[in-house]
Amino acid sequence: MDALGLRTTPALQVESVSRRFGPTLALDGVDLAFVPGRVSAVVGANGSGKSTLLRILAGLLPPTSGQVLAFGSHPVRSVHHALDAGVVLVPQEPTLAGHLTVWQNVSLVSPARRSGIFLNDRRARRFAAEHVAGLLPEGVLDRPTGSLSKSSRQLVQLAAAMARDPQVLLLDEPTAVLDEDGVVALHALVRSFRERGGTVLIVSHRLKDVLELADDVVVLRNGRVQLDCAVTPQSEREIVALLSADEGVEREHRTGTDAPVVLRATGIRGWRGLDVPELTVRAGEIVGIAGQSGSGRSRLAAALAGSHAVEGTVEVAGTEIRTGSIRSARAAGVAYVPEDRHAAAIMGNQSVEANLLLGQDDPALRTGPFRSRRGERRVGRELVTSYDIRPPLPDKQAGLLSGGNQQKVVVARALAGRPQVVVADEPTQGVDASARAAIHEALAAAAAEGTAVVAVCSEFEEIFALADRIVVLYDGRVVLDRPCAATTPDEVLAASLGSSASPDAPTDQLEEVLA
Ligand SMILES: Nc1ncnc2c1ncn2[C@@H]1O[C@H](COP(=O)(O)OP(=O)(O)OP(=O)(O)O)[C@@H](O)[C@H]1O
C-alpha cells in the first residue's frame, strides 16, 4: 500500500522462483515483491543466491520454476523483456568495452547517438556528459574506459545504466570496488532515483553502507528468503546478528619489531607518478596500504609483486627481483592477490582444484619426482575445507563459483605456497563477514609464521583490524607511515585526502598548503 492506502503495483514480483545448477539449488521457492520508490538491500552469505536472483530479475537467466512479473503484467523471460520494462542490471564485474572512451560506453545504447540514420558523436558525447555528471569529473569522458581505475569503471557502468532511463536498477555489489568518493556518489544517485519513483535492489556485503541507504531488506540463506522486512532499528539489529561472523581472535598490533626486513623497495618511480623512495616490511609484519582510488595504492602493490615495471629495486630477503617480472618475484617467494580477480587470477574454465594448485610446489603434491594425483586431491580438498569454499566441490568450474567464493580461491592459492611475502590487493573484496574473518585469520597466521604481508584495503577500518602498520598514499607518494596503534582513522582519512593535517606529509606538499 502507498501513503494513501492504495495498493501499489510492484515494480517486480517474484513468484515461487527456484533455480537449479546441477546439484546446486541456488534459489529455492523465492517469493518477493519490490515496490516503486523504495530501495531494497539484498544480503546474505557468499553463495546464498543474491547474484542468481538479480540475474533472473534482469532476464539473463531463466528460473527453473516460477516466474517474475514486471509492473504487474510483463513477464520477464529474457533480457529484452527486462529492458523493455525498464529493468537494468549493473553487474558485479564491469562489462564495458575497455578500448572505447567513457562517452562511447555510456551512450552506446542510446538513441541520442543518432541523427536520423547517422551516428552523431557530438550529441552522444553531450548525452553521456549529462549522465557522468555527479559521478566522475567531465575530464574522463574522452579517456579509454580500460585506462580508468576499477572504481571509476564501476561508476561509468552506473552512468551507462542510467543512460537507459531505467525504472528499476539492480546493483550487484556496487560498492565492492568503489572508493569513498564513489560510495558517496552512488548513494546520492540512488537517493535521487528513489525520489523520482525508481526502484532499487542493491546487493552488498557492506552492511553498514547498505542499511543506511535501504528502506527494506531481504536476507537470503541457502537460496531461501530468511527475512523480508522494512529496515528499522530493531530489524537492523536482527540483520546484523544474522550476518555477522565471530570476529575471530583479535590480533594484537605488533610494533617496533626487530625481525629482519624481508621486503625492501627502494627508489620506486614511474608508472603515472608513483614515487616511493623506500618501503620496508619485516618478517611477520602486516602493512596496510591505504589511499583513495587513483592514489597509487594498487600501482604500488603491483610494482612490489613484479606485475608492472617501474624504476628502482625490489628485494626479497636480500635477493633483487626483476621489476615487471611476476615470474622473478614468484621465484623469490612473492605471492600476489591482484585487485582484478577476473582478469588476472581466476582461470574460469578450470576446476576449483586446478586454480588452487596452480603454481604450487608443495612436497605433499609429489611422490618422488612425479606429481601425485592423490596428493593433489587431498591438498585441494583441504584448501576447500579450510577456506570454506562453497559449494565444497573441488571439481566445480571455478568461473561458476559465486564472486566471494572465487576470491577465497585466489587468497587460498596465494597463501598455500608459504610465501616469504604476500602482496594482497583488496583481499576481502566481495566476501561475506565470515569469509572476511577467515581471510584475516589466514593472513595473520601467515604473518605469525614469518611472512611479510602487504595488504591494500579501501576500507580504513579493515586496515586497523588487520595490520600492524599503515602506509597512506596520496598522489603516488607516501604521506603517512605509522604503526596502527599510533594513528587514528581520522588522521588516515585526512592524509589520504592530501591534508596538511598529516605530520608525515612531504614538506613540499605542506609548504604548498601553507602558502
Ligand atoms: N552458472 C552456474 N553454474 C553452476 N553453479 C552456479 C552458477 N551460477 C551460480 N552458481 C551457484 O549458485 C549458488 C549461488 O550463487 P550466487 O552467485 O547467486 O551467490 P551470491 O549470493 O551472489 O554469492 P557472492 O556473495 O559470493 O557473490 C552458488 O553455489 C554458485 O556456485
Automatic annotation (TrEMBL):
Domain of life: Bacteria
Organism this protein belongs to: Nocardioides simplex (Arthrobacter simplex)
Entry keyword annotation includes Repeat: yes
Alphabetized InterPro entries for the sequence: AAA+_ATPase, ABC_carbohydrate_import_ATPase, ABC_transporter-like_ATP-bd, ABC_transporter-like_CS, P-loop_NTPase
Gene3D superfamilies membership: P-loop containing nucleotide triphosphate hydrolases (3.40.50.300)
Entry-linked CDD domains: ABC_Carb_Monos_II (cd03215), ABC_DR_subfamily_A (cd03230)
GO molecular function, one term: ATP binding
Record keywords, A-Z: ATP-binding, Nucleotide-binding, Repeat, Transport
Protein name, as recorded: Ribose ABC transport system, ATP-binding protein RbsA
Entry-linked SMART domains: AAA
Pfam families according to UniProt: ABC_tran (PF00005)
